Amino acid sequence: MSYPTDFHTMAQSIRADQIRAFGDDPAAVLIQTLVLNEEAGEVARLAAKERQGIRPESRGEWEHELGDVLLVTFGLAAMHGLDPESLVRDAAHRLRLRADKAVKTRADAPPPTP
Q1: How much is the mean pLDDT over the chain?
Q2: Structural domain harbouring 21
Q3: Is residue 71 part of a domain?
Q4: Tell me: the pLDDT tens digits for 95-114?
Q5: Which of 5, 39, 88, 104 could form a disulfide with 68 if both were Cys (CB 3.0 to 4.6 A apart)?
């Protein structure tokens, strides 16, 4: 089975699969939030091992672990009735505003003294 390509429908499908796999526990939001932290920890562990030279070739692992983070994130978005595409667009907009502010701050800063 393949998932739909639009983020909102994909999130709904992911949530349906989560319910099929794990049930519709009343504590599901808490559980999925903890799972998201676990998956983020796996990404952090991968970054640390790559930095330490333990796993220099880890592209497949990055794909796997970041995919897990996205999967859980989409499921959480669906649990809250949120559209992941809107979330990403809003976050990207906030990032652009921060980047614009940082560039302006650097441009307005006095040059360093020798």
Answers
A1: 89
A2: 7-83
A3: yes
A4: 999 999 999 888 888 887 77
A5: 39
